[in-house]
Design brief:
By secondary structure, this protein is α/β, with parallel strands linked by helices. The protein has a single domain, classed as Rossmann fold (3-Layer(aba) Sandwich), CATH 3.40.50. It has 8 helices and 9 strands. The strands form 3 sheets. It has a 5-stranded parallel beta sheet with strand order 5-3-6-7-8, sandwiched between helices. A two-stranded antiparallel sheet has the order 1-2. Strand 7, helix 6 and strand 8 form a beta-alpha-beta unit.
């Protein structure tokens, strides 16, 4: 089954954001749903522990004069439009080149500081680079999820990015499989960005084979990721569940 997200017609060459629905299946988000009903601000924290900076996350440095927009900015824009009374703020906390175990050391302070009701955690890349055991990685991610839940935040885990340029250097596949298992066991959302980007590559939606990414490619990919995340979040907010927090 495919889902298609309609995007604004900013450029004639802009591709459609189409992907298998299983790669961003909704999971209930009761804490976020409750917060959006209140008049107090709703904070979404994007926790980035990938290997590099925002500019280098997508197949190399971004060339061109245009300022690249990463997916959190699209998420904030869409959430504010969809839930205008929720006073949504998206904050990004970068913990670059840190493993999941290293990130969770700083996580309690970040959660106390931002008080999010949704944490979107990008993780796995640096664990793969450093060859962290998958068991240790699983334990750290599970601990991070538990910390977020204890602080009143729902969780969506985002897998590493797909890049044909780095496949030969390190293998993220076992870590993605581990994320899938941990999120399922903890009943939290899993956004399989690696499989999504591989699908786009295989279907020639985007070309990730180049050595450098231009701003248009960067923005289009992040726009698509943001749109699909918004769909996942919105469906998770709307899910009716028993025993919601």
């Amino acid at each position: 089954m495919l889902l298609a997200v309609a995007l604004p017609a900013e450029a004639d060459e802009e591709p459609a954001c189409v992907a298998p629905s299983t790669l961003a299946a909704a999971t209930r988000l009761p804490r976020l749903a409750a917060s959006l009903k209140e008049t107090a601000p709703t904070t979404v924290m994007v926790l980035n522990s990938s290997a590099g900076s925002a500019k280098s996350n997508l197949t190399g440095e971004v060339s061109g004069d245009a300022v690249p927009r990463s997916f959190p900015s699209y998420v904030q824009e869409a959430l504010r439009n969809r839930y205008p009374d929720g006073r949504v703020v998206v904050v990004t906390r970068n913990e670059p080149r840190r493993t999941a175990a290293e990130v969770i050391v700083a996580l309690p302070q970040l959660l106390a500081q931002d008080k999010p009701t949704l944490m979107i955690w990008q993780t796995g890349t640096h664990d793969a680079i450093r060859g962290v055991s998958v068991d240790g990685f699983a334990d750290a991610v599970a601990a991070g999820i538990d910390l977020a839940h204890g602080a009143g935040a729902d969780v969506i885990i985002v897998s590493p990015q797909y890049s044909p340029r780095t496949d030969f250097a390190f293998d993220v596949t076992p870590y993605v499989a581990t994320l899938r298992w941990v999120t399922r066991s903890r009943d939290v959302g899993f956004f399989d960005r690696m499989a999504l980007m591989r699908y786009w590559s295989d279907e020639a939606v985007f070309d990730f084979s180049g050595g450098r990414s231009n701003a248009a490619l960067f923005n289009n990919v992040h726009r698509c990721i943001g749109r699909l995340l918004i769909r996942m979040i919105s469906e998770g907010v709307d899910l009716k569940t028993v025993g919601s927090h």
